[in-house]
Amino acid sequence: MNRSDVLIVGAGPTGLVLALWLSKLGIVVRIIDKTSAPGTTSRALAVQARTLELYRQLDLSNAVVQKGHRVDAANFWVKGEPVARLPLTGIGEGLTPYAFLEMLPQDEHEQLLIERLEGFGIKVERSTELEGFEETGDGISARLRLHDGQQEICQACYLAGCDGARSIVRKTLDTGFPGGTYQQVFYVADVQAHGPTFNGELHLDLDEADFLAVFPLAGEGRARLIGTVRDERADRAETLGFADVSSRAIEHLKVQIEQVNWFSTYRVHHRVADHFRNGRAFLLGDAAHVHSPAGGQGMNTGIGDAINLAWKLAAVLSGGATATLLDTYETERITFARKLVATTDRVFTFVTAEGRMADLLRTRLAPFLIPKMASFETSREFLFRTVSQITLNYRGTALSTGVAGHVHGGDRLPWAHDGEGDNFESLKCLTWQVHVYGDTSDEMIAWCHEHHLPLHVFDWRPAFEAAGLGRNGFYLLRPDTYVAIADSSADPKVIERYFKEHGIRPFFGSP
């Protein structure tokens, strides 16, 4: 038990997904967490479309959708009345198999991941804390404090810090974590209640009162309330109870509380670590970046970190790539994290800003603009693409090259679906693969066969053109389903050169 390929510190969604992906790829993992039991009062709710797409690789998507709640609309309230409604049903129609907003509380989400991980024979080691570590010549030597108080020296090839905003891994690496903390104190409450806002849709109060959002959950009358606490109450955040929360916003949204299942307060930070990697140690999720809850991006971004790193670690550990592949993790993920923090910061500031001008913008301008924007398909599509993370790309980075049709190297492969099929079906395999839309050369077919590289040739159809895919070229897809090469030729030497330049042998390691 004290030797593994990868030691994962932290068993939140990021650590659990990393453990799952690595286990699926045959990598020996050990996952520890200092808590005695899984969390029951977690804040994250939204499972974005891109996460659901990637979850297909673990056969998790359907389970998440079945357990969660699909939100049909977002409603905006001012002075106790609904003033704008943004329909969300099919808002991403034609862009993804998951063209909706899915809500699943983080604690239920984690339990699903834990059960799947146990299917690989891996259990989270609870009440086990990382006290420190150092890099040796060929790995990591970590000091653990076990549940019985005993100390253990653990050996691993690599260490993954998924241990949250107060990460001991980040502190041990002495990596800077610049940013700041918002002045508002937030509260989160899981409640049983009734009223017009308990119709299965999302509701937000834009008024000058304390900010409040009502997030629907699966089950009659269940919802998660997320709001702000201002004035002098913020100075005693640690001792606040639900009774201390301003009733003004709750009354504005006509929420009739029957029972408070749990309640907690917290402060929101906006920070990105200076580095996501130092030698054999990596930072993921909240250990690497924290930001406002605007747009439900945090948990999904951490899961994206895990998937990006998992296939690269698996390739290196299995002999399918040189260790230089791991350099691309920080490059690809830190750019997105910095952009995300800046974007969510602007949204958060608008929603929670105080003062007469801010109130006028929220209560007068926003209710006027939201229905206008919602009436245009292009604006609805832009909103969905951004929030769902399907526009996240790695263009211009080391592993991304070329363009074919409207698709660039580094892009997420566009989804194309019609009555004849779905081009995402083959993406369930955690392997490198080639997609061709139209015709390809005999050389390409022979080369892929010889090198055990899966080749999927789709007869050309209008749906592919509509999705922006190029005809008769090829797309080399990474194991995380992002495009490595987009090329308009049918020349396998392009792929051969790519693998040679990057030290990759794609037929190694993947089941």
UniProtKB/TrEMBL annotation:
InterPro entries annotated for this entry? FAD-bd, FAD/NAD-bd_sf, RIFMO-like
Methyltransferase as UniProt keyword:
no
Sorted alphabetically, the keyword list is:
FAD, Flavoprotein
Q: Which residues form the FAD-binding domain?
A: 4-343
Cofactor dependency: FAD
Under Pfam families, the record lists: FAD_binding_3
Report which superkingdom the organism of origin falls in.
Bacteria
Entry protein name: 2-polyprenyl-6-methoxyphenol hydroxylase
- Species name for this entry? Pseudomonas mandelii
